[in-house]
Amino acid sequence: MISHSFRSIDDPGLAEEYLRLVGDSDEYGAILVVNELLDAGVEPQRIMMDLIARTQARVGELWAENVWSVAREHAATAISERALAAVAARITVPPTRGRITIACVDGEWHALPVRLLCEMLRLDGWRTDFLGASVPGPHLVSHLHQTGPDAVALSCMIATRLPRAHAAITACRSAGIPVIAGGRGFGPGGRYAQHLGADAWAASAEEAVRRLARNWPPHSADPQLSAFLGDEEYTHVVRHRGTLISTAMDTLMRTYPRMRGYNTRQMDATTEDMTHIVDFLASALYLSETQIFTDFVTWTAAVLEARGVPAVALRVGLEAVRAQLHDFPTAVAMLNAGAQLVK
């Protein structure tokens, strides 16, 4: 139960109180807060972005800092989804702009950001088809042929999904539907979105609403920008992914003595980390963008430090993958760039 009534989105203590509610899995309290704000005349868009979205970003930070567990983060996300649904249920806007399909690319499971986008676009007068998380490319294309939308909004939060994002963007444009991309997986400023053939990119739901409201569809991107991605080094890493991971784990066991005392949970977490090293390397090779890999290493080092894992473990992991790719100069250069960031 919340401790007091909020009349404004700018009320002192609102963000802290709402974070406490989602952190305690208090669905009733969270929904009561958003309803009180709506009753007080606060615009639903501000509740969605200034409260729900901002709190969700903080939830992610608390997980990365090892303050909240994965379970608590998932539970809080579920409460945010329910609060968003409560806001959406209160507001009805007739569609006047057109129809848009909204989806996460195949393998992308962070659905709340696109759900927020869906509701923001609906409030702006769009007819929205929300397909949710991890939509396989063929299913997406089938939906486009059935419905003929004016645009597709694709979300990619993790850079390892970029090759699949490229496939989805290519399929959408082949169907004659322009694509607006979003999500931090497309890199700082969306630098990888155009490279993958997207017609536009937006840094936030508000920016996407503005972008779609004017001069849409935009001038089509040059198809040659994305025609030839993924070389022999990328192909080798993807084709030998399992071997790269298992061999690196064997090397870690021999060269990092502390790992011999790991329990099952710690071993599973280490395997997951090694998998991420290989998958982020593959995406960096696919686009020939070293920053994809170095950004991942910087983020991973901070996450591992928060969990008490010494930097040497990450460095040994990078070296274990590099040792298997000595005949592939671009991959080696990317791994070296990552290793230089690990103090």
From TrEMBL:
Answer yes or no on keyword Metal-binding.
yes
User: Metal-binding: is it a keyword of this entry?
Assistant: yes
Known Pfam families for this protein? B12-binding, B12-binding_2
Q: Locate the B12-binding domain: which residues?
A: 97-223
Sorted keywords for this record are:
Cobalt, Metal-binding
Q: What domain of life is recorded for the organism?
A: Bacteria
- List the residue ranges forming a coiled coil, or say none: none
- SUPFAM superfamilies (UniProt xref): Cobalamin (vitamin B12)-binding domain, Globin-like
Q: Which PANTHER family match?
A: METHIONINE SYNTHASE (PTHR45833)
Q: What is this protein called?
A: Cobalamin-binding protein
User: Species name for this entry?
Assistant: Paractinoplanes deccanensis
